[in-house]
Structures are given as structure tokens and as C-alpha cells.
Amino acid sequence: MDGVDVVVNFARHPDDMHLPHDPARSVDIRLARHVAAAGAHYIMLSSRKVYAADAQWQASEDAGLSGLDTYGRNKLATEVALRQMLPADRLTILRLGNVIGHEHMPGRRSFMGLILNTLADTGEIVFDMSPFVSRDFVTAEHFAAQLGRVVELGLTGTYNLSSGTGVMCGELALAVIRGYGRGQLRVIDPRQADAFRLDVSRLTGKTGLRQTADDILRYCHDLGKALG
């Protein structure tokens, strides 16, 4: 790692989604050992799922932590481990909302990946939840811009990184359909499922970068249009 000043890790082991925390499996922990020895700065991409179930709406960085699910608990355990391995002035933890982008690719199981793939393949988007569930989405481009500013400014500590706005999932899906020019949204189970929004004021106060709900909906329209 000679000459490396900052390391940002995007990788994770697929078993982190469903198996209990194992330090030997954690890509972050294994990589952070090398970063610590090299004296470099480490940026961990964590998740809003580290917050407790009752803290998911408008969660600030100081909200309760217990992990929403197995993935959230694994991310939380990794955050704790990294704080023990690296000094505070060489560690940044970014807790992400739902990052969306150009995800029309075979096998992509993310929220936007499923929307784009099923619309292109079947002409419809199928929800097993209420279309009125509101979630905090952020575009891949805005995420990248925020990350770049974090590196440029040398920010340390813990920050939520998302848009900080709530967009109804049905509204987002319909924006994609309008861009595509055809298709339908079909709801097979109107359950209320996993609404969340992050308080991003700590980060936006540092970077000055913000994204609105209208920005996100225009972006989704363009994603649909790009399907052809």
C-alpha cells in the first residue's frame, strides 16, 4: 500500500446478508488491517440498517443501534471492530440509504435492478408491498459526488449518506414506467414494509451537496427511457 492515502471499500462477502458476523469473513476487517499498518485513511460503506427498527424514520447518526436484520447487525459489528483497529482521525463510516442507478443487468436483485429487469422482461413491475411505502433513495451519481467530497475534505467520523427525502416506492416505479413509455405496476400484497428516511444534515452541512425528491423522480424517468 505504498503511496496510498485513502482506501474506500465497496466489497462485501455475500454470506454477510444471511449469516452471523464472522471477522474472518469480513472484507472490511481484513482490508482495514492492511490500511492500519500502512497509516492510510479508511472509508467504510455501512448501511442505514445498523439503526434499530424503531429508529428507521429520520434516523440521525446518534439514533439507536441494534441492527434491523442480519446484514445490519453484521455492518454494526464491523463498525465497532474498525473503531478498535483505526484511530478516529483515519476512519470514516458512511451509512447509506438505498442507492439506485443503471441496474438493468441479468441477476441484479437490488430494488432498482428488479424494477428495471422485470419491466423490460415482462412489461410490468410487481410489488409485494404497498406502493405508498416511503423510502430514502439516492442516485448513484449523487452518492459518488458526496463520496468524492468526503475524500476531498478529509472528513472523519460517521455520516448518513442518502438524499434525506422520502419518495413513495409506487411513485418511483411509475416514473420509470413513464420513461419507458409502457407497462404497469401490479401490487400483489399491500403490506407496509420497511419505510425509512435518514437525517443527512450532518453530511450536507459539510459538503453542501443536496438531492431532492424531484431530482430522484426525474432520474428514474430517465432510467426507464434508457430501457428503450
UniProtKB/TrEMBL annotation:
Pfam families: RmlD_sub_bind. SUPFAM superfamilies: NAD(P)-binding Rossmann-fold domains (SSF51735). Signal peptide: none annotated. It comes from the Bacteria. Residues 30-125 form the RmlD-like substrate binding domain. This is NAD-dependent epimerase/dehydratase. It comes from Tistrella mobilis (strain KA081020-065).
